[in-house]
């Protein structure tokens, strides 16, 4: 039984890493599209525009702040297992920088081409999220923050998720206007990502459930 659990944990961890890799490329494609990143990536992207930090490093910093906020919110109710969000954040940040570097040669010259890259980014992020959920090892700090808010204030997950995303986008817009004197990283693609990443993940979750029953139990 113990060996079975170990194999299951290893497989789930590998699936999580694959999901993070796919999500990272989704973020990179969204950045290349230039139509705005997803809500969760909008703040790190904007910060990377007026600081020496890369997008990946800014993502790591944001995740650390979110982990600290979870601890402050939940205090004694905080599950120490959720500290695993930290190594996950480190891996995701490094993969994000690698993905941005890997796509550095891609250029787009037309609006339809921008949307093509944006759609690819949305699909990849949605697929990556589905892999992460199916792996069921540990949540990313963003989702962990939403769950912490739900637990601390007894609000529905959907409402907390919308509030969290809107807050990140508003902060990104404010910082962008103050430091860059224009909106950067928040455009029509951000709205599209907010709507379709979740829908994509739901569609991919169906075959992934069958995959989990066959290979991850």
TrEMBL record:
Instruction: Alphabetically list the UniProt keywords.
Output: Membrane, Transmembrane, Transmembrane helix
> Is Lyase included in the keywords of this UniProt record?
no
| Residues passing through the membrane, by range | 54-74, 86-107, 113-141, 162-183
- The reply to whether Transmembrane figures as a keyword in the UniProt entry is yes
- Mind telling me what this protein is named? DUF6198 family protein
Q: What is the scientific name of the source organism?
A: Flavonifractor hominis
């Amino acid at each position: 039984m113990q060996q079975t659990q170990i194999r299951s944990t290893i497989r789930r961890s590998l699936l999580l890493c694959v999901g993070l890799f796919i999500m990272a490329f989704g973020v990179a494609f969204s950045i290349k599209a230039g139509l705005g990143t997803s809500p969760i990536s909008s703040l790190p992207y904007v910060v990377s525009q007026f600081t020496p930090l890369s997008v990946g490093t800014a993502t790591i910093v944001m995740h650390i702040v979110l982990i600290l906020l979870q601890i402050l919110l939940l205090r004694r109710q905080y599950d120490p297992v959720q500290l695993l969000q930290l190594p996950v954040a480190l891996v995701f940040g490094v993969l994000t920088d690698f993905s941005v570097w890997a796509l550095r040669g891609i250029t787009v010259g037309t609006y339809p081409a921008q949307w093509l890259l944006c759609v690819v980014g949305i699909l990849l992020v949605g697929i990556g999220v589905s892999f992460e959920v199916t792996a069921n090892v540990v949540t990313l700090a963003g989702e962990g923050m939403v769950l912490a808010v739900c637990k601390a204030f007894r609000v529905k997950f959907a409402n907390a998720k919308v509030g969290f995303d809107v807050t990140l986008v508003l902060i990104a817009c404010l910082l962008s206007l103050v430091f860059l004197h224009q909106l950067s990283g928040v455009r029509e693609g951000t709205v599209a990502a907010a709507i379709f990443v979740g829908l994509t993940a739901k569609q991919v979750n169906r075959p992934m459930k069958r995959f989990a029953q066959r290979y991850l139990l």
